[in-house]
Amino acid sequence: MIKRKLSFWEIWNMSFGFLGIQFGFALQGGFMSRIFQTLGAGKEDIPLLWIAAPLTGLIVQPIIGYMSDRTWSPKWGRRRPYFLIGAILSSFALFFVPHSSALWMAAGFLWILDASINISMEPFRALVADKLPDSQRSYGFVVQTLIIGIGTWVASNLPWFVSKLGVSDTAEIGVVPMSVKVAFAIGAFVFLLSILYTVFTTTEYPPEDMEEFEREKAQKNQFIPNIVNNIGNMPLTMKKLGVIQFFSWFAFFTMWSMANPALTEHVFKTPAPVEATYNMNISEQKEAFDIANTAFQKSSNLVGSYMGIYGLSSMAFALLLVFYTAKRRINRKYVHMFSLLLGGIGFMMMKYIPSHEYLTISFILIGFAWGSILSMPYAMLSSSVDPKKMGVIMGIFNMFIVIPQITAAVGGVNFVSNLFGKETINAMMVAGLSLIIAALSNFLITNKNAITYQPETE
């Protein structure tokens, strides 16, 4: 099938749902550890509490990719039904997670939230490959990254913003502040609304050969053999990209799970107070706990706001690439390599900055890495796989995202961080080192089609 080139606004419309998806991810990434700490989790427990996120991705994404490859409705298309189902479930989970009254409830809602986000997210990656000719693939993934950057920045600043509007950061012991609850409620609304926008403004191409499509769809009990076959016959370029993805996502999982405890403690000097160290029956002790807890909650707002900067810089990075890739050829390999190196430097700076204002520089550099991670690997991959299997291939490729996160959650972060010392900030050093290894792994990529493309001439 010859696919026509789409205008910027057509690509924008089909990618707009990612705004909501990123609201979900940014609120989860910026504030779940804060919720866990508020409910009494120790710093060393946080990575394991996060295991729900990557584990659900490992299970859900290949299944959704396989199912969406075999879905077709003249009215709803192939990928859009999954956008909508995921959005409804994600909005429900986003609204209720900050209302958790115990750690097990928060961890359970994280399972629901991450599974639901994955139901929406994986088909979005496949949609770009479905809709765009090869010459526009980098452009399409970069537009997605632009929207993701907007979502990351806005969502990461929501608790700080609603706090500035007068919503309280103060709460009783074990209760999440109202500023966080309001922020998550706004995120739930934006998630659903943005997905609906894409669903109703985007059309999809039908299968090229409907008879063959129906025959494949009619085959029963083929899911496991199909997944195993595609993993066994994985293109070499995909395997090499998997190495890069492993170290990239190990780094970002470390940031999402550990940035709040690391930065509130090391940079802001306001660690989460431990209830057991205070005698709550003595009014002075109770007052001291409340003061320390409020300071922690306010500095957590600022950590979230600083984390939003990496979304903003990834957006600027994506915007530059949008203009450049619309007309010119890029070397995806070297763009990705240097972006990851900058991100690694940004992480490693955090241990040595003299004040929290310097976190702006760190997160700007991290944003370059994030912008590239969200576009360049997918652009390289989509140029080297069978278009008819794009959904399941993207789902399998996302295993290279979730496996490093599981590795980090079950002890990888704590083990490697402790090699540097007992300070929590060492987790950010681990993230930086991991990104630098990911950057150097780009030398493995040698497939010319993956590395670059030549835009079609008008």
TrEMBL record:
Keywords carried by this UniProt record: Membrane, Transmembrane, Transmembrane helix, Transport
Stretches that traverse the bilayer: 12-36, 48-68, 80-97, 103-121, 141-162, 182-200, 241-259, 303-322, 359-380, 392-413, 425-445
Compartmental location: Membrane
Bilayer topology: Multi-pass membrane protein
Gene3D superfamilies tied to this protein: MFS general substrate transporter like domains
UniProt entry tagged with the keyword DNA repair: no
Signal peptide: none
Pfam families attached to this UniProt entry: MFS_1
Domain Major facilitator superfamily (MFS) profile, first and last residues per copy: 237-458
Major subcellular site: membrane
InterPro entries, per database record: MFS, MFS_dom, MFS_trans_sf
Entry-linked SUPFAM superfamilies: MFS general substrate transporter (SSF103473)
Protein name in UniProt: MFS transporter
Biological source species: Tenacibaculum tangerinum
